[in-house]
Amino acid sequence: MTPKTAHLVGILGGMGPAATADFYARLIRHTPARRDQDHLRVAVWADPTVPDRVHAVLNGTAEPYPALLDGASRLRDLGVTIAAMPCNTAHVFLPRLVAETGLRFVDMIEATVASVVTAGGAPRTAGLLGTRGVLHSRLYQDRLSAAGIRPVEPDADTQGSVDAAISATKRGDLGAAREFAVEAVRRMARDSVDAVVLACTELPLVLPRGNSDLPRLVDPADELAIAVVAHCRG
Amino acid sequence: MTPKTAHLVGILGGMGPAATADFYARLIRHTPARRDQDHLRVAVWADPTVPDRVHAVLNGTAEPYPALLDGASRLRDLGVTIAAMPCNTAHVFLPRLVAETGLRFVDMIEATVASVVTAGGAPRTAGLLGTRGVLHSRLYQDRLSAAGIRPVEPDADTQGSVDAAISATKRGDLGAAREFAVEAVRRMARDSVDAVVLACTELPLVLPRGNSDLPRLVDPADELAIAVVAHCRG
């Protein structure tokens, strides 16, 4: 058995489901492989019935936590060696989840900030587009500031576009979602930020790639997938 | 709890990994939902290290079976109420898997043949493109014949293109895979079949959709996803 196949990657997902499927696909794409047997073993626990994360964070409750704990415990009991949770907002609960399950996670926020810092152009400012929950939690702001990058938060109109893009993605209306998401990025770009962090896993699902018309987009789910593969190969 | 969220869908995957991620994405797309909480709970066990299914079927061994049994048992123990295995060739082992785990599966071959029979145009012939293992097993031929549809098997050159398409998909060379897959469909189309069943889950990953130039393509993974959602919605 190679060190790679000895790993069992756990994905604590369902928040939302499409972002989870997309994350799993990215994990596969980022794994150098010639045949099935070169790929990572993966277990996914996707419970989309986890109570609303944003509502909980904004109201200071831990309503989603029992479902997250249940999922993480199941992954641990399956023998998962490294876990990933492709939902930015749910990362508010990550420290407690790690402490109470002993399951090792790659932290998506950490992987993303590390990538923003090291990527070309040495950005000085980074715009943040995410749920009201993730912004309220300051998950990204504090870590970006600590890394010497000024975080730029969306204004009320931009946040409205972000919220509309996320809801449209979740109900499967990808055309509308794309329009709202592009609008949000354009509004954020007016502040001439060096990069825009798509701090909700629903946003990269609908944004066109490689649009030179937009600022540099950072996709935390992609950074998480790259970091998980690196961990398993490392 | 609605009847829908009470279900836990199990995906026994990894054969190959990209087909598994794609199947999960289809399951989500076929689920009518307005928000995360309307989606199905899903557990995936994806072990790409399962020994080669085609080799086993062609040589009459059960080499992949222990890994399949392990995965199915894990899904059952997680509380899975309905399972799906998005790999055609592995369906050779399905009856034994069901008998030995008691886990309920939606049979992908059955769902596909049912769709071929009921879909518009009342096809009389169906071309089969799949691994040498799935063809050798006669999984599709016998059920299509029983349903009054004449199965058409690929000739040696067509099978060569199919094999090349599958290998290229598994090593992530999607451009080459697409060329080989289109070539295989065109060769099969020379027999003027009414439909072509893409009887390997790697093939639909690379074939262009809605190409009116090609005969009607039937995608078993899509039929499986539709059947699983229908089962869960009662």
Summed up:
The first copy, chain A, has 234 residues and is α/β, with parallel strands linked by helices. Chain A has helices at 3-6, 17-29, 53-59, 65-78, 94-101, 108-118, 132-137, 139-146, 156-170, 174-189, 203-206, 220-233, and strands at residues 8-13, 41-46, 82-84, 125-129, 150-152, 195-198, 216-218.
The topology string of helices and strands of chain A comes to HEHEHHEHHEHHEHHEHEH
CATH names the topology of the largest domain in chain A as Rossmann fold
Question: What class do helices, strands and sheet pairing of chain A give?
Answer: alpha/beta
In total, how many domains does the architecture of chain A comprise? 2
**Continuous helix count of chain A:** 12
Dominant shape of chain A: globular
Mean pLDDT of chain A: 93
Cα(first) to Cα(last) distance of chain A is 15 Å
| SS strand fraction of chain A | 5-15%
- Based on the coordinates given, report the CATH architecture of the largest domain in chain A: 3-Layer(aba) Sandwich
Largest interface, C-beta closer than 8 angstroms, per-chain residues: A-B, 39 and 39 residues
* Main sheet record of chain A: 4 strands, parallel
- Report helical residue fraction of chain A: 40-55%
Q: Roughly how many Å is the radius of gyration of chain A? A: 17 Å
Main β-sheet, spatial strand arrangement of chain A: 5-4-6-7
